[in-house]
Specification:
With 223 residues, this protein is mainly alpha-helical. Helices cover 77% and strands 0% of the residues. It has one domain.
Length: 223
């Protein structure tokens, strides 16, 4: 798993994808920061993370996850991956945690805005960290779904579109509220950790990781 993790994490920064993901987050975060903090003088970091999760992840997650397995299939390296001595579970988890690490890096960069606010009115750090924790959980759940989609197609654009439909369509349309990830991020921005929301997001994440492992084991068995 570690070798796959290192390879995947390095690939994010040897290609434009990692920088585009970071740039997209900073653009959305900065825009919301300007609207809420500069314009109406709100110092609520939780609101910043909530709205960035709502609008920024719509772009960031498909961008990060679309290439995970679809690119391997398109370039013909999937067969080498599946026939390597590494386990399918290790391969899937390595790719997953590499994407999660990229999100952690993005969240670490966002603390710059907390430092900026400290020059005016220091927000409470604990609620900010809780909002970041919830953001990370939502991102991890969305990445797992995007990874699953990438495992069933070889076209990265199709993978990105299907990820938006699967993960973000309930939020955009109000349909299927039971699978709307943003609904499980309602309490974190207020500095509250809800066991129900944590368990729901973790269950969502584990479910799609298992689906991906099943798909890849199936593909390996027919090689």
């Amino acid at each position: 798993m570690l070798a796959v993790y290192k390879k995947e994490l390095k690939s994010y920064f040897l290609s434009p994808i990692g920088y585009i993901a970071i740039g997209t987050f900073l653009f959305v975060f900065s825009l919301i920061f300007y609207i809420t903090t500069i314009s109406i003088r709100s110092y609520d970091m939780g609101n910043l993370y909530f709205n960035t999760a709502r609008y920024g992840l719509l772009i960031i997650i498909p961008l990060i996850s679309m290439r995970m397995f679809a690119e391997e299939r398109k370039t013909g390296t999937e067969q080498l991956l599946l026939t390597s001595p590494r386990s399918i579970t290790g391969i899937v988890l390595g790719k997953f945690f590499a994407a999660v690490t990229l999100v952690v890096i993005i969240l670490a960069i966002s603390l710059v805005y907390y430092v900026i606010l400290c020059f005016f009115k220091a927000p409470n750090l604990v609620p900010t960290l809780i909002a970041m924790f919830g953001f990370l959980l939502v991102a991890m759940a969305a990445i797992s779904a995007g990874m699953f989609v990438s495992s069933i197609t070889e076209n990265q654009i199709v993978a990105a579109v299907l990820t938006i439909v699967l993960v973000f369509l309930p939020e955009l349309t109000g349909m299927f509220p039971i699978i709307n990830l943003i609904d499980y991020y309602q309490k974190f921005p207020a500095g509250l950790i809800s066991v129900t929301e944590v368990v729901s997001l973790l269950a969502y994440m584990i479910m799609f990781i298992l689906f991906t492992i099943i798909v890849m084991k199936r593909r390996k068995s027919v090689k």
